Amino acid sequence: MNSSKGVRAAGPGCRWSKTGARLVRSCYLWGGVFLLCLLANSVVSAQQPSPAVPLTIAQAVDDALRNYPSVQVSQEQVNAAAAEIRLARTAYLPAIDTVAQVNRSTSNNAFGLQLPQSVLPSITAPAAGTNNLSTAWGSAVGTLITWEPFDFGLRHANVNISSALKAQSQATLKRTQFEVAVATADAHLTLAAAEETVKAGQAAVDRSEVILRTTKALVAAELRPGADESRAEAELAAARTMLIQAQQAVETARANLARFTGLEPGQILIAAPRASDLPPEVPFAPPDPGVHPAAVEQVAVTAVAQDELRALERSYFPRFFVQGLASALGTGYGANGRPLGGANGLAPTVQNYSIGLTVTFGVMDRPAIEAREEQQLAIIRAESARSRQIATDLRAQWNVAVATVRGARAVAANVPVELAAAQAATRQASARYEAGLGTIDAVAEAQRLLTQAEIDNALARLGIWRGLLEVATAAGDLQPFLHEASQ
């Protein structure tokens, strides 16, 4: 009886424990499902492409200056040149060399002379006439301080070379940034022009589809021959081909812009609010070619060559070195040349010190230095001529750019006339064809002229902006152009 009551008393507890276990298993199950959902959501989010970023021309240039590798390369070259200056200045510091040595060696020595070399050791002992293989301990410590108190301006000239190299690296960085900015701005305008061409191509496809439907209806009513339908289909296929080529040009231009900005092509959506506006006409003042980044860099290159010549002119002088020496030697050999045994020689026991002045002079270096000076003078003349060539090219580039802007403005003024005439011709040709008075050839020709007029109209103002970019490029300053184009 007692046992049966115990069993009945334990029954509800067992049921509760089983229920709790099921609840725990359910919690684990749903928790695992929840974690899997989170993981799947994160994977899907990672796989989804980032949304397109609308870029003005100024924003695209800023991204390129931050991300394009060639700018980073030039920046690191500036850092390396700055470190080179610090390295050149260390020549003013004294050189302190220390040495410590412990050896186990023989002491056999002989009279005679050896030419300078780095293999045979010197032995600080007289020739004792012995030739045995017994060894003893030897030790040595020493410090040598060498300082050049004056050098006739050679070290200062070397520091100037390093400073000129840093200035050249900084000029190269600015020139690289300028070229990257120009290339990015050009890529942005190219993409804008390609997108305008796509719009014109799509309009041409829409008109060709309308003509094809009209022609099919006239052919079905036996008002036109079947050849007209074939011609309309050919014109539609040609228009679609032109549209595909225009779309291909857009993708190519977008990929080229992505190369500079560091974005993926699918993330780029250009914002060109001024692309369809007529830029204000302002007078062009001839720029100073000397402020162009390419000209500034060339001046820095010439300065480096001149500083190298000054260093050569100061290299044919004696070199004066003040030197101080402190040393100690230990030997395991006695004065009679016999080993003392034990640990004798492990510690230095004999001290020496010295202070003095050393003068060195390469007497026969003069012919080589004169030849190098002539070579350096030729390099300086070549770099100076290259500076004049850059100035000449920049003036010619600026003149061409100004002529391009003027021609683009003339085209932009004439294009509305071309577009209006082409639209009227297309309407008239379509009406005559539907009335049975014209041919499909006249309609196709009118539509091609209209498509070309639409493309010319879309690109006319962009042509002015591109000419203004060329003017800014020749002047060496893009900021006014970027400010005007991004408003």
Would you mind describing this structure in some detail?
The protein is α+β, with helices and mostly antiparallel strands and 487 residues long. The protein has a single domain, classed as Outer membrane efflux proteins (OEP), CATH 1.20.1600. It has nine helices and six strands. The chain has helices spanning 2-47, 57-67, 69-89, 154-220, 226-261, 293-313, 366-434, 440-475, 479-485; strands at 53-55, 95-105, 136-147, 268-270, 319-331, 350-360. The strands form two sheets. A four-stranded antiparallel β-sheet has the order 2-3-5-6, with no helix packed on it. Strands 1-4 form a two-stranded parallel sheet. The longest helix is centred in the last third of the chain and has 69 residues, at 366-434. The radius of gyration is 43 Å and the shape is elongated.
